[in-house]
Amino acid sequence: MEDNNLWENIKKGDRNRFKELHDKYFHQMYLYAFKSVDGDSGLAEELVSDCFIKIWENRKKLNIETSVKHYLFIILRNGIIDHLRKQKVFTEPIPMDIMAPGDEKDFDDQRQYVRLYMAVKKLPEQCRRVLELAAFESLSYQEIADSLQISKNTVKTQMGRAYKQLKEMLDPKDFNFFLMVCEGLF
């Protein structure tokens, strides 16, 4: 049954259609959550289950205008972000354009951005700050040194440490993605 028809039946309280929706997307959502919470299978399962509970409890109020799958992943994404904020992994929100899933290729890229974002946030503060200024604010090493009141050599050292630590933290595919995003910095 197509998702829109499933959703219409779920809104009417059809538990069988809800189970069908759950069975259709649970595995994909679980894998996304599993990767987003660094391989914690119990937490990933809990986050996905919470997502489906929210859908069921609010089914009569929800008016899904996009795809049901897209909506499920948005709820899951928000649940993951809430959990990570509570764990103090994030000190600032993830930008929506990084997180909102589109087609499968975009969705894979967005997951890589999330993993990269989480890895960068785990770097030591000065190392992270130097990398952020270089990568996201496009400052030169000298501008970073002036901004942080450190030497240009310290900036180079911190960039080298960021490179080394991210190479250890990220799998090869994500690290290559990092190099592509930060092209020309190293």
Automatic annotation (TrEMBL):
It comes from the Bacteria. One of its GO terms (biological process) is DNA-templated transcription initiation. Keywords: Sigma factor, Transcription, Transcription regulation. Residues 115-166 form the RNA polymerase sigma factor 70 region 4 type domain. Residues 33-88 form the RNA polymerase sigma-70 region domain. It holds the Pfam family Sigma70_r2. GO terms for molecular function: DNA binding; sigma factor activity. InterPro entries: RNA_pol_sigma-70-like, RNA_pol_sigma-70_dom, RNA_pol_sigma70_bacteroid, RNA_pol_sigma70_r2, RNA_pol_sigma70_r4_t2, RNA_pol_sigma_r2, RNA_pol_sigma_r3/r4-like, WH-like_DNA-bd_sf. Belongs to the sigma-70 factor family. ECF subfamily. PANTHER family: RNA POLYMERASE ECF-TYPE SIGMA FACTO (PTHR43133), RNA POLYMERASE SIGMA-70 FACTOR ECF SUBFAMILY (PTHR43133:SF46). This is RNA polymerase sigma-70 factor, ECF subfamily.
